[in-house]
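Handoff note, outgoing to incoming analyst
You'll be picking up this chain. Sequence as last confirmed:
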Amino acid sequence: MSDFNKYCQEAADEELPDSEDEEDIGDEDTCSVQELAAQFRQKYKPQDEASVSLQREYVLCLSADQGFTRIAAGLSSSAMHIYNLDAGAGKLANFSFLQPTDSPKPVSICGIRFLDEGPHNIVVGTTDGYVRLYDLRLKGEQARFKYSHEYREWPVPKSMTCFDRNANGRVICCGTEQYQSNAFLLFHDVRERRQMGCYCESHEDEVTSVRFHAQNPDLLATGSVDGLINIFDAKEADEEEALTSTFNTESSVARLEWHRNVYDKDIVSCITTTGDFKSYESEEGDEVASFQRPDVTAAIRRKNAANFNLIGAHNQEDGGVFLLAGTNFNKGEILRSVSVTGKSELQPLANFQGNKQIVRDSLFDAKTGLLVTGGESGIVTVWSQETGATLAGSDKLKVKKEKKSRKQAPY
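Most recent structure output, in case you need it:
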């Protein structure tokens, strides 16, 4: 297991402090209950909850199909729960369960993705280096992808840290831990069940996030412990030609997401391991927004940045972006969101009352306004909005459109 995954595993396995210890640490809101209600105008409540296990397991990652009708939850045991979601009622129903990976060594899930537009095909990545394809209508795995040593003269790490599939479900890209001063991006062809190639020179430390663009199957963003965000044109076989942009976050990258503003410009955002948030225009390279941990802590109206937990950045239907954040204080009781309204401005957005755990991952459906969270108490929660307020928009600086490339992809 890589150093980054070991850190995450140990942090999650640590016993939560008791109430006396929490009082010594100290944390509280920076304003009154009345002021909170006035500032966080959107109110969310738990619509439904499901416990993934009676054992001490926690939810590492979540994924939803394109229609937001099926939710997959990957557990710390490498098992996976799959639920049907009635979006209208906000209710979860058990659908399927995939057993933990049978391995002599400890194995953890490092990602789950539905493969295509439907709710049936799902790919699961595990830290032992495998990506497994399942058809939920059939029994057993349908395919398995792993690095082949025939492609290069030297071996790559056996441990995989992250993966993603592209927009048309044809290509899988896997990130690895550091090996001999390099980290690897491995590409697999899903239909032909073969390895396509790899990039191995753009990151010098463990790859922590791999994200394909939601519409462009060739556009790939990768992040690493080395602090770099790299943008690739993945149809290029040569790594030097494929690398189109590089951003230095001056931190360690934890999570990447793609966004598109109202002017149809692609934005890539980053959450760092220190809880900072940064976003960039993927083509022109301009910094769109940058907020340090204390900035977001203050925006959710909490006092102690040491307890702060930045969970995710989500797209809104109007092109805006909001950040979901909470605290580790009192077992994650505080869960709130803020809207990114400019390069250096955050506005209070929503308050999620009744949270029971430290949240590790989240999903948001802009059409229905439903939020799904999973975390360290092993609970999958569906949140619904109590009011019909419109989500705040994003910064609307006008930018010119670039011409699309006419190069043909080789796959």
